[in-house]
Amino acid sequence: MTAALLSTAAELHARERRGRRAVVMTMGALHEGHASLIRVAREIAGPHGEVVVTVFVNPLQFGAGEDLDRYPRTLDADLDLAGRAGADAVFAPSVDEVYPGGDPQVRISAGPMGERLEGASRPGHFDGMLTVVAKLLHLTRPDAALFGQKDAQQLALIRRMVRDLNFGVEIVAVPTAREEDGLALSSRNRYLSAAQRRTALALSRALFAGRDRHAAQQALAARAREVPATHARAEALDRLGESRAAADAHAVAQAVPDTRGGGPAAVRAAARLVLDEAARAVPPLELDYLALVDPSDFTEIGEDFTGEAVLAVAARVGTTRLIDNLPLTFGPLGAAS
User: Fold this and answer.
1) Which are the catalytic amino acids?
2) What's the predicted TM-score (pTM) here?
3) Is 323 in a helix, a strand, or coil?
């Protein structure tokens, strides 16, 4: 399938619309993660609808010293990948087309959520991101817009903007695409040397360690609830043959069973061990943040939290900054998602 290349809003608006229009917004340098978004968009649009991929490197969301100038521009390859994944059109406007009067005087403010985590590390980033997403939603006029879960804070802010400002569009989240070894797909991965890439694997390994600790705590708590809260519980846990149960059997026996399946502190600690080891690697990983947050506002969750949470990490390897996250659920039905 060949995707049409469009450079102006007038060209896009001149296209005949029959079914639903699904839009995938990108900054180009497309990879398999983007392709997965486009394929889901194709399913949503259906055979009679239209899938539009936007390619625009937005200068508003790059701060001083960031990689705007060296951000990869690969439009020919992007057009090919988008078409093969099922896109009908690639909308690749110039900066003048998106911001005809220069830097916009009126912008979208991300508010307090936009000042946390990524926002704290990259001041103004989310204001610029929301401003261009709002503009592209108006320019492309989609029924649905798709975004990857890898940029969890971005996704949460877009959903908040659409809800708070009454945008008539469905926001669809698509799970993070990963390499076989677990590294989250990113256009910035191409900057990593072989040695740096080995170090970068610590991001996903840390998240998986937190997820696995959470699952182990849940399993232990579930078994503990099945045993009477007496000394017999300790003996029963010992007989389970689990190292954690054996080491902690008497403490668990005297405790009220934890219906949440284990606390957030243990999840953070398991992830932190992996990151601390990577900080001693050659080349080292320089941690920006590790956070376990409520996705509604991206504040850290407490030990009594129940519901959906996001375990998020950001770090730099060499000059390349990478992010990753995993969703977790805390509560009686808590499970890694």
Assistant:
1) 34
2) 0.85
3) strand
Q: 26: which strand partners?
A: 55
Residue with token string 């899938």: 51
- CB burial string 245-282: b at 16+ within 10 A, e below: beebbeebbeeebbebbbbbeebbebbbebbeebeeee
Task: For residue range 276-288, list pLDDT tens digits in order.
Answer: 999 999 999 999 9
Distance of alpha carbon 236 from alpha carbon 255, whole angstroms: 14
Buried b (16+ CB within 10 A) or exposed e, 207-218: bbbbbebbbbbb
| pLDDT value, residue 295 | 95
What is the per-residue pLDDT for 306?
A: 93
Residues with pLDDT less than 70, the chain = 64-65, 224-225, 227-262, 332-337
Per-residue tokens: 235: 């003996």
CA distance 85 to 274: 36
Burial tier of 238 (Cβ tally within 10 Å: 0-12, 13-18, 19+):
middle
CA angle, 12 then 128 then 149, to 5°: 80
